[in-house]
Amino acid sequence: xxxxxxxxxxxxxxxxxxxxxxxxxxxxxxxxxxxxxxxxxxxxxxxxxxxxxxxxxxxxxxxxxxxxxxxxxxxxxxxxxxxxxxxxxxxxxxxxxxxxxxxxxxxxxxxxxxxxxxxxxxxxxxxxxxx
Length: 131
Description:
It contains 4 helices and 6 strands. The protein is an alpha+beta fold. The protein is elongated. The chain starts with a helix and ends with a strand.
């Protein structure tokens, strides 16, 4: 009985973890779906957390991407087929961690010559020459 009740959240979490790893070409990925006993079947998730480490985003290497969503409404039919379609999100946060060298390579690829990246008291400063 417990497996049947927890099943949809666990199955969706597992499927999303694989999709996140593949989509972001991540070395490590995790996904966690928190929903009531019938939440996934009704398209209502209390929480959705996705994380990818050692990933690629728009052709740029990033250390980590994290997505934390609360009070999420999804398309339940498509979710059961393995597609995540968000209908609404009450609140959420996205965090992207990019290393200095990865950021420098990205800037060079966007025609910024001699880029310098500096972090000081929470402020990121990027300098370089536009070509």
